[in-house]
Amino acid sequence: MRQSLTGDIHLNTFPAAPSLTAFFGGTFDPIHYGHLQPVTALAKLVGLTQVVLMPNNVPPHRQQPGASARQRLHMAELAVAGNALFTVDDRELQRQTPSYTIETLEALRAEKGHDAPLGFIIGQDSLLTLHHWQRWQDLLSVCHLLVCARPGYRSTLETPELQRWLDNHLTHSPDDLHQQPHGRIFLADTPLVTISATEIRQRRRQGLDCHDLLPPAVIHYIDEHDLYR
Ligand code: ATP
Predict the structure, then answer these.
(1) Which residue has its alpha carbon closest to ligand 1 atom 7?
(2) Most buried of 102, 166, 214, 228, CB within 10 angstroms?
(3) Among residues of the chain, what percentage have pLDDT more than 70?
């Protein structure tokens, strides 16, 4: 804002610099504190004000989730209801055919324009298998990779070539993630949470309590729909 000689107040007309948005894809079968707690900590560490949860479609030839796409979406929505950091985007579930992450990210990049900083959040286990993803080497020309720590997974990549690729793109500076639109990898020192969706589904089958593993509203939904029995 600036004040003219006559004392009138004028609002600057410069467009605001686009802020860093991060998308967080997953099967979320179901969503749990192992997703929410590290990502909330990551948001604080790098100054993220918006995280978009994106439940994914599971290709028919892969093992199908225990909950339907619609149920996984509902659980994600319930998990973050009233939490201003998170929104949920169902674009991958709207598609008739499963899409590769790179295709979704390219569509997001096209929507946001060349200069908007864009992040994609993954856990350490996903980083270790990233080289099996479709067109994985194109990911950094579209987004940054923001990696949450996950206990029980090695910290280095499988081969020296992959590790070199990681080292070449690594940044320790959150500023880089805001100032550059894509191309950096940030390994976030987030709290280690041992929870997995597999464990939750197993505990449900065994009739065991899960109250400290996922939000109460999600547990209620799982009970109501008799999921993972
Ligand atoms: P499952 O046990 O069914 O394989 P999951 O618990 O690993 O599921 P996903 O929905 O497959 O959950 O994971 C989505 C993303 O969240 C992935 O990038 C994964 O690495 C990350 N993630 C899941 N659980 C954790 C956790 N406890 N800590 C850090 N990252 C996690």
Answers:
(1) 196
(2) 214
(3) 93
